[in-house]
């Protein structure tokens, strides 16, 4: 059966109204990004001037997806997007936990310090994605990644969790259709394609199930 038979196109993520406390936590994340960026390349330098729109709001739109999820893992977390932002938006959900997986030790230091200052329900795991995901305690409800790799590669990295029923949430740019077609060569996918609120032509791929062909 072709890819289109497994693909549902949705209009946009649900809007998230955040409290003043959450706004304050998001401001800490933005301030930390600006403080650490000169020392560590956390985001593309030309996006720093519009960091709130390009990174925080873009990440925040993911927080309303899978609202019942209590265990969330973000891989290749780097500058903390979307993981730190989702943790800030969802921390009022009792029991919610975010795991940030990052191989770069300096970026892990940034993630830990920012999570500490914003008092986020976050655990930072320093190591190779492949090693950490195979050792994680299940269940994990959601796995996410932003600006890490093409979709086909992400499916391979997240395979240990996807095989166990974890939902994949992967924001993509304007080449999302090309990435979906490339992934469908090697993967059987059941997915939603959700239009981005922050970037015209971009979309969020929500993977319901994935198995190798």
Order of helices and strands: EHHEHEHEHEHEHEE
Rounded Rg: 16 Å
- Report low-confidence residues grouped into runs of 5 or more: none
Distance between the termini: 12 Å
Strand content: 15-25%
- The shape, in one word, is globular
How would you explain this protein's 3D organization?
An eight-stranded mixed beta sheet has the order 1-7-8-6-5-2-3-4, with helices on both faces. The chain starts with 6 loop residues before the first strand and ends with a strand. The longest helix has 17 residues, at 20-36. The mean pLDDT is 92. The radius of gyration is 16 Å and the shape is globular. Strand 3 (97-102), helix 4 (105-118) and strand 4 (122-126) form a beta-alpha-beta unit. It has 213 residues and is an alpha/beta fold. Helix content is 37%, strand content 23%.
What's the quick description here?
With 213 residues, the protein is an alpha/beta fold.
Keywords:
alpha/beta, 213 residues, 8-stranded mixed beta sheet, 7 helices
